[in-house]
Amino acid sequence: MSFVSPSLNAPAPSGYAHDWALVDVETSGLVPRRDRVLSIAVITIGPEGEQTGEFSTLLNPGCEPGPVEVHGLTAERLQDAPTFDQVAGRIGAMLQDRILVAHNAQFDYDFLAYEFARARMWLPVSQRLCTLALSRQVDPPTEDMKLGTLAAHYGIPQQRAHDALDDTRVLAGILRASLREAARLDLPLPLVACPPRTESRFTPKPPKTPCPYRNPGRLTAGGPLQQGMKVAITGETVLARAELAGRAVATGLNVMTSVSRHTSVLVTNEKAAESAKARRALAEGVPVIDERTFLRLLADVRPGTTHEAPGISVAPAAEPAAEQTASADPVTVPTPVEVPAPETAAPPTASLHVSVPAPRTPEPAAGTPDKPLAGRRVLVLGGIHADAAAARSRVVELGGSAAINLSAGVTDVVLLPGGESDRRMKRITALELPVHDPRWLTSPTATDRKGVALRPQEPHVMPRGGVIDLPVPHDRTTREWYLTVGWAPQSDCAIDVVAFLLDDDEQVTSDQDFIFYGAPENPAGTARLLTGGPAEQTIALDLTSLPLATRKIVVAAAIDGTATFGTVGAIQIGTAPGSSAAPLARATLDAATTERTMLLAEIYRRGPVWRLRAVGQGYDHGLDALARGYGVDIAD
User: Domain 230-298, what architecture?
Assistant: First the structure.
């Protein structure tokens, strides 16, 4: 019996046919290592699009069910249900040798990984596909990317939202429709490799308690310690290192794992610079004392100054500003790094700040005289990097959005020399998209937009250096802001997105405040790295729960290998209040030619609000040098 409309039961297009296992879970919370799965549904689909299996069950999590008002699952309903370990074997058999599919797939995948680990079993998934990431690539003209919105767009009936089985049936229809759209646009599927995960990976680590005091500076000769001072310890100690650090923290000191120019004092019993920390302290002029002196000073630590509370964490939505005005917030870059940025990559001396725009209605085809490309999304093909970057900048100046990939949202194509050989041109011709030469950007004219679906709302287009205030999400159950980074798929290199949670000194307070592929979330779960595919990664931030010591989050990208951002091309960032919400703002960033590391965005406190700045600053050095500049301990 069919569970979606007949038109959606057609076989998957050639090259997009796989064995799929569609999954949806309802959970007691949002943190996989802490919360539990309350219900699960799995539907298997074969390469021809036919359903081959279905299973669903409630689960007894052994804990409180969490937000009952969202999922409707009370403790009474769940008390007689099986535990996860009792059904893990059956679920594993359905996942085996299939690609796991879910809407926001990393969420479902991570919850399953923890549940299988608790059951002392392997999660038998080697690849996953996120229909949310796939939908962002296809870019249908919908208000957002929520499951219900996409279901309505594709004509898929939805009976009971937040019911695992019904959501999975809806997901099956969305997958089929999205695969056909991907085939029409000739888009590669954003498949994510899932290496085996061991139980030790899921052992929760207690988060470091953020120091409540500001750093007063360095220890002076003969002077006292003061609360908030940054203290590093290296070498052998008489007391156990953990006890020594514990005593320091108890007095209000901030014990760091690395040495930087902001370190107040280094504690070591070594007589010479026999460690990397000691050598760095010598180079930076950081005071060095021995353990005995440190213990004596711990007996009289002077009071410090606490971090100022900002009042509220995010700003209320504001009316659109009449025009962009100069901001008093300068663009900052990580000055501690050893290798300076090239002159061509220097950021603007002043940033542009605007209030967050209210939802906008689509502009007419011709836009306005000063913004003739308003409402258009323009894809630039060909040309040397400098020319392509200049063309994309011109698109933004004219009020348009510069696309980096072909999608259903692209309205125009600008063809620079060599662009005619781009593999996407065959599909662009078949789609009958308007193709222009570079002169069109000098004085663009109206083109026929017949058949182009207008969107209910277009994201605010941010120029390089632009700044916006982040408003309170309309959905109060949504606590996270998502900064999604995308680029054109690469065959010869990998790109890693990272984030640094920084204090007043532009330094991490511990290595746990460095979010990267090897440590994709901090222990408190307030900052997470999510992988949507080979050409998309997201930093998710719970701004309302970050400690007061965190004043700024820097999001960057680094190339793993010898390639540069000059060959990769433009990087696009978009920010949204929730994983499936429509982007509030979008920026397309171009590095110069030789950069291997790129600062993409800063999210920082300004009084009671959080602000987002589009940076676009490139460096020739690698990620290790960038991390050292922010105080991350690379090696000791």
Answer: 3-Layer(aba) Sandwich (3.40)
pLDDT of 524 reads: 84
Q: At what angle do helices 105-118 and 84-95 cross, to 10 degrees?
A: 130
List all residues 6 or more positions away from 438 whose beta carbon is below 8 Å from its beta carbon.
387, 391, 414, 415, 416
Give the three-class secondary structure for 70: helix
Are domains 6-202 and 230-298 of this chain identical in fold?
Answer: no
Buried b (16+ CB within 10 A) or exposed e, 360-383: eebbebebeeeebbbbbbbbbbbb
* Mean pLDDT confidence for 369-374: 82
The residues, any chain, with a CB within 8 Å of residue 260's CB and separated by 6 or more, are: 280, 284, 336, 505, 507, 631
Give 50's DSSP letter.
-
Write out the two tokens for 211.
């120091």
* Amino acid in position 247: R
CA 365 to chain centre: 33
* 596: three-class secondary structure by DSSP: coil
Beta strand extents in 33-169 (DSSP E only): 37-45, 51-58, 99-102, 127-130
pLDDT value at position 2? 32
Give the burial class of 93: count Cβ atoms within 10 A of its Cβ; 0-12 exposed, 13-18 middle, 19 or more buried: middle
The DSSP element (H or E) to which 358 belongs, if any, is: none
SS3 of 379-413: the string is EEECCCHHHHHHHHHHHHHCCCEEECCCCCCCCEE
Q: Strand pairing of 325-326 and 288-289?
A: unpaired
- Give the residue extent of every domain in the chain: 6-202, 230-298, 325-358+461-629, 361-456
Instruction: Quote the pTM value.
Output: 0.80
Q: pLDDT for 524-583, tens place per residue?
A: 889 999 999 999 999 999 998 898 889 999 999 999 878 888 888 889 999 999 899 989
6-202 CATH, one of 3.40.50.720, 3.30.420.10, 3.40.50.1820, 2.40.50.100: 3.30.420.10
* Options 2.60.60.30, 2.60.40.10, 2.20.25.90, 3.30.360.10; CATH of 325-358+461-629: 2.60.60.30
Q: Which residues pair with 23 in a beta bridge?
A: 42
CA distance 478 to 529: 17
Cα dist from 347 to 455, 547, 594, 601, whole Å: 32, 29, 16, 12
pLDDT at position 587:
93
Residue 601's pLDDT is: 97
The torsion region of residue 322 among left (phi > 0), alpha (psi -120 to 50) and beta comes to alpha
Q: Which CATH number fits domain 361-456: 3.50.30.20, 3.30.300.30, 2.60.120.10, 3.40.50.10190?
A: 3.40.50.10190
**Distance from C-alpha of 472 to C-alpha of 478, rounded to nearest angstrom:** 9
Kind and range of the H or E run holding 183: helix 164-185
User: What one-letter code names the amino acid at 367?
Assistant: G
Structure-token pair, residue 16: 């997009």
Number of Cβ within a 10 Å radius of residue 82: 12
